[in-house]
Specification:
Elements: E1 11-15, H1 20-30, H2 34-49, H3 54-64, E2 71-77, H4 79-84, E3 90-97, H5 99-106, E4 118-124, E5 130-135, H6 137-141, H7 147-168
Antiparallel strand pairs: 1-5, 2-3, 3-4, 4-5
């Protein structure tokens, strides 16, 4: 059986006062690294195989989080494709988040994992202006109509807004 429903998503675009490189530097200085996350993920798998207490995995994750309380899971660079297409614009998509907060939601409703980690893109247009775009986390998860999920989504979104404000101003 298949069911489909339409949802409303709020899309946010922030025009930055900072150059592209400065925004990326700001993000990467405030986020746990992608390489660090891969190491943490392996550590968690080892802990799970040993049936270690959940607290050990939580401690490993907490050590990996940057000052923003997020880590980078994956960064996808679009700029080489733009260059090959003859464009001077640049773009990089980040998949970032906090696994501890994601787990609070996905253990209530596993489908929420479709939206965690967060996705946002930093891009520079042809005129050299830098932007950050994302779909708001609360709007993505509103479809589930679960107060416990909405509360965590609001916390995540506030952390994302603070991070993006700090690097784009």
């Amino acid at each position: 059986m298949k069911s489909t429903r339409s949802i409303t998503i709020e899309h946010t675009i922030i025009a930055s006062n900072q150059p592209y490189e400065k925004v990326l530097e700001g993000l990467e200085s405030r986020l746990g690294s992608e390489e660090g996350w891969r190491e943490t993920e392996q550590r968690i798998q080892t802990l799970a195989a040993a049936q270690a207490p959940l607290e050990q995995a939580e401690e490993a994750i907490e050590r990996q989080l940057g000052t923003s309380d997020f880590t980078i899971f994956k960064a996808v660079e679009h700029t080489p494709f733009h260059t090959l297409a003859g464009k001077t614009s640049r773009a990089i998509q980040y998949m970032a988040g906090n696994p501890l907060l994601a787990n609070q939601m996905s253990r209530l409703l596993p489908e929420v994992a479709l939206y965690a980690p967060l996705h946002f893109v930093v891009y520079e247009d042809e005129a050299g202006k830098t932007f950050v775009a994302y779909d708001t986390f609360v709007s993505l998860l509103a479809q589930y109509q679960r107060e416990e999920i909405t509360q965590v989504a609001q916390e995540v979104e506030h952390k994302l807004e603070a991070l993006l404000s700090a690097v784009t101003q």
